[in-house]
Design a protein that fits this description.
Radius of gyration: 20 Å
Distance between the termini: 61 Å
CATH topology of the domain at 1-83: Immunoglobulin-like
Largest sheet: 5 strands, mixed
Catalytic activity: prostaglandin H2 = prostaglandin E2
Domain CS: 1-90
Strand order of the largest sheet: 6-7-2-1-8
Low-confidence stretches: 132-150
Family: Belongs to the p23/wos2 family.
Shape: globular
CATH architecture of the domain at 1-83: Sandwich
Order of helices and strands: EEEEEEEEHH
Keywords: Cytoplasm, Fatty acid biosynthesis, Fatty acid metabolism, Isomerase, Lipid biosynthesis, Lipid metabolism, Prostaglandin biosynthesis, Prostaglandin metabolism
Number of helices: 2
Helix content: 10-25%
Pfam family, one: CS
Length: 155
Amino acid sequence: MHHAAAKWYDRRDSVFVEFCVEDSKDVQVKFDKNKFDFSCVSGTDNIKHQNTVELFGAIIPEESKHRRTDRSVLCCLRKEEVGKSWPRLTKDKAKCNWLSVDFINWKDWEDDSDEDLSSFDKFSDMMNSMGGDDLPDLDGAEEEHDSADSDDESK
């Protein structure tokens, strides 16, 4: 059993935790007031992941949820105390080697208006619509250019 690598960030109403597991299956997330459990099987090697997180603050389990994509599992933990910032995800101050702060999504929200879970849904829909297959093949573009040059030389 391995820990799944995860990134997290804080918002006014919720805390988001993204487990970086590709091709996950048998995903199970159990939300409790002061902790949550995550487990899944990932990859072609069927690696089993298990994480239990004792949370810095309390959450509302019934309003917390998760969404799976091909590359990760994003969890939205609804804070019990809205507007209270979490300086860390875990109750324990010790650093977890599998957990890091998602600085890309971190922002100073204390002056923002209230957010709701619909932002989580919008983000999840965006993540689901973004597939790796749609990205341009930069290596292939060079090969096409090279083959076009060789055609010119043969004339």
